[in-house]
Amino acid sequence: MSEPILTDAQTQLLRDLVEAARRSSERFMMLRTIHAVWLQHPGFADGRLQVAFEDVEALREASLVIVDPHGGNYGGYHFFTTPAAEPAYERLSS
């Protein structure tokens, strides 16, 4: 499997997600509004993180996260990191 090509922002988002997932096994919640996209998770320092939707989508296309559109309501989605996220994180951090 080839290494996904990620921007600096996408690489940082992957790092944030993997580190948060290490702190708590709960699923992430993504909330999309007209003005912003927020990720909520108890593993984030402030409990939430503002991100660009395109960065989440890039991680999904790289099979690093799975977004569950059935898990949320009113612009909210559950998602989680895939088993491929941890090795990708390790490679990008070395």
Summed up, the domain count is 1
Strand order of the largest sheet: 3-2-1-5-4
Distance between the termini: 18 Å
Rg calculated over all Cα atoms: 12 Å
| Averaged pLDDT | 89
Query: What is the string of SSEs from the N terminus onward?
Result: HEEEHEEH
Number of helices: 3
Strand content: 15-25%
Q: Given the helix and strand composition, which structural class is it?
A: alpha+beta
Weakly predicted, low-confidence segments = none
The description of the largest β-sheet is: 5 strands, antiparallel
Overall strand count: 5
Q: What is the overall silhouette?
A: globular
What is the helical fraction, as a range of percent? 25-40%
Please provide a written account of the structure.
It is a single chain. The protein is built from 3 helices and 5 strands. It is an alpha+beta fold. Strands 3-2-1-5-4 form a 5-stranded antiparallel sheet. α1 (8-23) crosses α2 and α1 packs across α3. It starts with 7 loop residues before the first helix and ends with a helix. The mean pLDDT is 89.
List the helices and strands and how they pair.
Elements: H1 8-23, E1 28-32, E2 37-40, E3 48-51, H2 53-61, E4 65-68, E5 76-81, H3 85-93
Helix pairs in contact: 1-2, 1-3
Overview in brief:
36% of the residues lie in helices and 24% in strands.
Q: What are the key terms here?
A:
94 residues, alpha+beta, 5-stranded antiparallel β-sheet, 5 strands, 36% helix, 24% strand, globular
